[in-house]
Amino acid sequence: MHAVHRDGHLELELGDWKDNRRYRILAVDHDLISFSDVTFNKWPVVVITNPKDAHYGIKAHEPLNRIRKSTHIRLLVFSPYDITSVQISIDDVPLLPRVEHVEGPLYVCLWQPELYSTGLHRITVTAKDAKDNSVRHTRTFSIDGSRPVLKLIPAMILLTDGQTLVSIGLAYRYTENRRTFEPQTLAIRYAENRCTSYSHKPWL
After folding, report:
1. Judgement on whether residues 91 and 33 belong to the same structural domain of the protein
2. Is 109 within the bounds of a domain?
3. Which CATH number fits the domain that encloses residue 68?
4. Domain, as residue range, for 158
5. Secondary structure class of 202 (helix, strand, coil)
6. Which InterPro entries match (predicted)?
7. Which residue has the higher pLDDT, 109 or 56?
């Protein structure tokens, strides 16, 4: 569950480790924070660090303009086995420059951010390792600051404080209790009970 607060800060809940074995990898690239939530022992793992996911940009605290000025797409690819293939496409169009392995888990690819200067776009990374494991990792990004909407119900749950929920629950219960003890309601229930009891008499 993810939500954006009024001041622009993010609240990013992570699936549990106990039952679902979920964990988060966080990376900082030129002061831009990126992350991937993944399942334990599923390989390869991909974290796209540039361009940053458009859902989670914080304009007040991150230099998002650096995406526009960047020369390379940057990503981290992890696996206990050798990585044999990394391919990148944007809006379902494969990028012609070859993805290069720099060192460790870092891979880069030349790009032209001005080609994606307006609106939202999808970047997809497909990675394979020597054990024939593969993953397809897709993220939405923007150059002009466009931002997609997070899922509504999880955001509402995170942004509604517990005190408000308790107050609403108590008010509803109080209203229901008042209805139960109103004279008109009691008379109707009494009549319903009488009709039910008579309907079960064998002589009727």
Report:
1. yes
2. yes
3. 2.60.40.10
4. 151-181
5. coil
6. Ig_TMM62
7. 109
- pLDDT value of position 122: 98
| DSSP code string of 119-178 | SEEEEEEEEEETTS-EEEEEEEEESS---PPPPHHHHHHHHS-HHHHHHHHHHHHHHHHH
Q: In residues, how long is the chain?
A: 204
Is residue 123 one of the residues assigned to a domain?
A: yes
**Shortest CA distance to 136 belongs to which of 152, 125, 122, 120?**
125
In angstroms, the Cα distances linking 157 to 5, 22, 151, 162 are 12, 21, 11, 9
Residue 182 clears pLDDT 70, i.e. is over it: no
Task: Examine the domain organization and report whether 85 and 121 are in the same domain.
Answer: yes
Q: CB-hemisphere CA count at 13 Å for 79? A: 21
- Whether 73 and 88 have beta carbons less than 8 Å apart is answered as yes
At 113, the amino acid letter reads: P
| pLDDT at residue number 74 | 98
pLDDT above 50 for 204:
no
Task: Specify the number of domains making up the chain.
Answer: 2
pTM given for the model: 0.71
Summarised one tens digit per residue, pLDDT across range 139-181 is 999 999 998 875 555 545 555 555 665 666 676 665 655 555 5
DSSP string, 37-80: EEETT-S-EEEEEESPPGGG--TTTS-THHHHH-SEEEEEEE-S
Residues 176 and 156 reside in one and the same domain: yes
